[in-house]
Design brief:
With 184 residues, the protein is mainly beta. 0% of the residues lie in helices and 38% in strands. The radius of gyration is 24 Å and the shape is globular. About 10% of the residues have low confidence.
């Protein structure tokens, strides 16, 4: 690995904000957008500020709930609104699911659908999907898939979406912290 010595110049380039705007467009800022009153600030489109849990329904009537980024070995309470499901009726309850990482706490009927509150443990990193089943009084049920992007412990703290709340951290095992000194 090379080290920088005295008098060496940096080889990379950084992000630069110019008060004149982009090359060839003196009255426009980056990406051809008009400049704002303050120089050196990044401005995002309003649609990027939507930070709520996203619920979508597929053609089969099942739901996908995207809860955003979570941190490994942390426990979260996730609350989302499910739109009205005509085949289930007004009274909905969770069916038992053999997942140790996702547990339904409550399902509450509201005029705009059902509020589902569940507890999720982020047990490994990557894009994880856990399923839960909701049933009404009839024989039919609806599958709800909760999708989370789980970060490892070395990648910082994620910004949680509205409807996601961290309720605790699981104990982690780190072999470097062990008191065991091995065999004599």
């Amino acid at each position: 690995m090379a080290t920088a010595g005295k008098g060496s110049k940096a080889k990379g380039t950084g992000v630069r904000f110019t008060p004149e705007g982009t090359q060839g467009h003196p009255r426009e800022g980056t990406q051809g957008h008009p400049q704002e009153g303050t120089h050196g600030h990044v401005h995002f489109q309003e649609q990027l500020h939507d930070s709520a849990v996203m619920v979508t329904q597929d053609k089969d009537g099942h739901f996908l709930v995207k809860v955003g980024f979570l941190k490994i070995l942390h426990k979260y309470e996730i609350t989302f609104l499910l739109p009205p499901v005509s085949q289930l009726g007004k009274d909905i309850c969770p069916l038992p699911v053999p997942s140790p990482n996702l547990r339904v706490i409550s399902v509450t009927a509201l005029p705009e659908g059902h509020s589902v509150r569940c507890e999720y443990t982020a047990h490994k990193e990557g894009v994880l999907r856990e399923e839960l089943l909701l049933a009404g009084h009839g024989p039919s049920h609806v599958k709800v898939t909760v999708q989370a992007r789980v970060m490892d412990r070395h990648h910082g703290t994620p910004m949680l979406l509205d409807g996601v709340r961290c309720v605790g951290a699981e104990l982690e095992y780190d072999s470097e912290q062990s008191d065991w000194h091995g065999f004599d």
